[in-house]
Automatic annotation (TrEMBL):
<protein>
    <submittedName>
        <fullName>Polyisoprenoid-binding protein YceI</fullName>
    </submittedName>
</protein>
<feature type="domain" description="Lipid/polyisoprenoid-binding YceI-like">
    <location>
        <begin position="5"/>
        <end position="173"/>
    </location>
</feature>
<dbReference type="InterPro" id="IPR036761">
    <property type="entry name" value="TTHA0802/YceI-like_sf"/>
</dbReference>
<dbReference type="InterPro" id="IPR007372">
    <property type="entry name" value="Lipid/polyisoprenoid-bd_YceI"/>
</dbReference>
<dbReference type="Pfam" id="PF04264">
    <property type="entry name" value="YceI"/>
</dbReference>
Length: 175
């Protein structure tokens, strides 16, 4: 069977995350510059191959000082590690949904991760392009990748939560 290649439609996609701030509210952010290579053997995307990278310099939390701190050696160290990468080892149907498994590399640390994914199927847009929708969620502990910086609060607890919630909305376009 022929392999179909897909690209992320950046105008209809978002690579987002949330982290607790001061133990009680979430700060949201996203990556604005990223690249992906996605290939499928059939229309249900089972066993699709995914390779993804995001440019650390494109991180945006709507606060320049915070973004610069995230790019610094305290967190992502963008100067020495300009990208985070993900390479899937499997994309398998799990009931009505899917599970995406692969290696996530941040800085010089690579760890295997599993994320639930919803596949919305295929659709033609008004211009005749075939599109596919994927929502990938999940969470990671940032300390597993050496993103350890924190600050204690006078009231107890810490400034930045360890758990990072991922919310990735992808609209793919068939090449």
């Amino acid at each position: 069977m022929a392999t179909t290649k897909w690209a992320i439609d950046p105008t209809h996609s978002e690579i987002g995350f949330k982290v607790k701030h001061m133990m009680f509210t979430n700060v949201s952010g996203k990556f604005g510059a990223y690249d992906a290579t996605i290939a499928t053997e059939d229309d249900n995307f089972e066993n699709a191959s995914f390779e993804f990278s995001a440019n650390i310099d494109s991180i945006n939390t709507n606060n320049t000082d915070r973004d610069n701190h995230l790019k610094s050696g305290d967190f992502f160290d963008a100067e020495n590690h300009p990208k985070l990468t993900f390479k899937a080892s499997s994309f398998n149907k799990d009931g009505d949904d899917y599970e995406l498994t692969g290696d996530l590399s941040i800085k010089d640390v690579t760890k295997s991760v599993k994320f639930p994914a919803e596949f919305s199927g295929l659709m033609k847009d008004p211009w005749g392009n075939t599109k596919a929708g994927l929502n990938i969620s999940g969470k990671i502990n940032r300390k597993d990748w050496g993103l350890n910086w924190n600050s204690a609060l006078e009231t107890g607890g810490v400034l930045v939560g360890e758990e990072v919630k991922l919310n990735i909305e992808l609209q793919l376009i068939k090449l």
